[in-house]
Write a structure and sequence with these properties.
By secondary structure, this protein is of the alpha/beta class. It has one domain: Rossmann fold, CATH 3.40.50.1820. Helix content is 41%, strand content 16%. The chain contains 15 helices and nine strands. The chain has helices spanning 2-15, 25-32, 35-39, 41-49, 59-64, 83-98, 178-188, 193-199, 238-261, 266-282, 299-310, 326-333, 352-357, 377-393, 413-427; strands at 109-117, 120-127, 135-142, 149-155, 203-207, 287-297, 314-320, 364-369, 400-405. Strands 1-2-3-5-4-6-7-8-9 form a nine-stranded mixed sheet, sandwiched between helices. Strand 1 (109-117) and strand 2 form a beta hairpin. Helix 1 packs antiparallel against helix 2 (25-32). It is globular. 45% of the residues are buried. Mean pLDDT is 89; it is low at 1-49.
């Protein structure tokens, strides 16, 4: 068991996946670590936590920079008595820290294809931002729907798989790529959850995130010495996809450094592009703009935190498999994290859960997996406590809820049912 755990840590550290990513941990575990070992992984970490952390002798010093004191812009500070004044100040600082790049005006949306499948009307969409390749997106709504419907901005996960994006949480025909069949079975209990929520009477928009699928970095566009002998030939071949995703994991370090070098952040790019997708959704004549929600698992949960925390057009949200504290990330879990979560200097001003807390008093649901090896149990509990305090002080304790489910990192059928019921409660009133 000791050797297996060491191999697990080595793999996780090399991949840079994990909490923010929709993690490859469950896939990896199936071939290297038995289920019982993986389920006990968090417990094993906690046993060592008192005397060990990711940065050794520097851990106590580093933790001391942020623990046992409230971040300067925390609503839990007694100095903040007005919810609106706090949100205005904290959101401004968050936007400054994110350094959100300009994504231009509302882009022209091209409808590439319209068709019906499994009771849904589906549109294959595309739009061009001022930079990079065009964004592909999928829109789903009930077949023959009339009038304005509530809407969901659905975020796909990371999953250590940048080759795919929208296809991770949708199904548009009986012919699915075999890797997506596996992906949906592993993380979503075989369900295309965007389809399932659409069937309940919603307009659902799923767009490829930066840099996934249509927005991914093409091998032929980078210097040859960085390609590891790969190219973009035979793109849908599973072996090519696996090789590309392995390359993209390592390129994530390069991308993050480059973004920092030009004065922006990965979460800032995400938010700018996700906000543009929300603009596009709101501009549709079939959408009830007063009743829009957003949700996602893991990397999609992270995007939910930043989107729902900053844009009040999101009336209701569900964050799945992505909730902990900066301390937990720093001392115990950064080795399983993507670079996509980090916002320089922000931990001095807001703890991670407080980003989502910026949406108080709007309805907010957090879904955690009790055996999720990507977080410490204490980190999840601490984050829950912080959000409870924020919503209670905002006079909206009843608008926040956190559920725990047995099992590993996932968004399975029972979790989907609770998420969909939450949306129905607040978006169909």
């Amino acid at each position: 068991m000791k050797n297996k755990r060491r191999d697990f840590i080595k793999f996780s550290g090399m991949t840079g996946l994990g909490i923010a990513t929709g993690s490859m941990v469950p896939s990896f575990a199936s071939s290297l670590i038995d289920t019982k070992t993986l389920q006990n992984f968090s417990a094993m970490e906690n046993m060592n936590a008192a005397g060990a952390n990711l940065i050794g002798a520097y851990g106590g010093w580093a933790a001391g920079l942020i623990e046992n004191k409230l971040p300067s812009l925390s609503f839990r500070n007694k100095k903040f008595t007005s919810l609106d004044a706090w949100k205005k100040a904290a959101r401004k600082r968050l936007a400054d820290r994110l350094a959100i790049p300009d994504s231009g005006h509302l882009p022209k949306v091209t409808v590439k294809k319209q068709y019906n499948y499994d009771g849904l009307h589906i549109e294959d969409l595309s739009w061009q931002l001022p930079y990079g390749p065009a964004t592909d997106a999928i829109l789903l709504k009930p077949e023959n729907a009339k009038g304005k419907l509530p809407a969901i901005l659905a975020f796909h996960d990371h999953g250590g798989n940048k080759y795919f994006g929208t296809r991770k949480i949708t199904k548009t025909s009986d012919q699915q790529h075999p890797l997506m069949v596996e992906h949906q079975q592993e993380y979503y209990e075989g369900m295309a959850w965007a389809n399932e929520i659409a069937k309940r009477g919603y307009v659902v928009l799923v767009a490829d995130a930066f840099p996934f699928a249509s927005r991914r970095v093409l091998l032929n566009d980078v210097p040859e010495h960085l390609r590891n002998g790969l190219n973009d030939d035979d793109p849908e071949n599973p072996e090519h996809i696996k090789a590309y995703n392995k390359w993209a994991r390592e390129h994530e370090h390069v991308m993050s450094k480059s973004l920092f070098c030009v004065g922006t952040t990965w979460p800032g790019v995400f938010f700018g592009e996700d906000r543009k997708a929300l603009d596009i959704l709101c501009a549709r004549p079939d959408v009830d703009v007063k009743n829009i929600g957003c949700a996602g698992l893991s990397g999609g949960g992270m995007r939910t935190v930043f989107m729902a925390g900053q844009d009040d057009r999101i009336k209701c949200c569900v964050c799945v498999g992505f909730m902990s504290t900066w301390k937990d990330f720093a001392l115990y879990k950064s080795f399983t994290h993507t670079w996509m979560v980090y916002v320089p200097l922000l931990p001095n001003e807001l703890d991670f859960p407080e980003i989502l807390g910026l949406r108080a008093p709007l309805p907010t649901l957090v879904l955690n997996d009790s055996d999720d090896a990507l977080y410490t149990p204490q980190g999840m509990k601490d984050a829950d406590k912080i959000l409870q305090e924020v919503f209670k002080k905002a006079g909206a304790a009843d608008k926040y809820k956190c559920n725990y489910y047995p099992g590993l990192h996932k968004f399975d059928k029972p979790m989907q049912k609770d998420a969909f019921d939450w949306f129905d409660k607040y978006l169909k009133s």
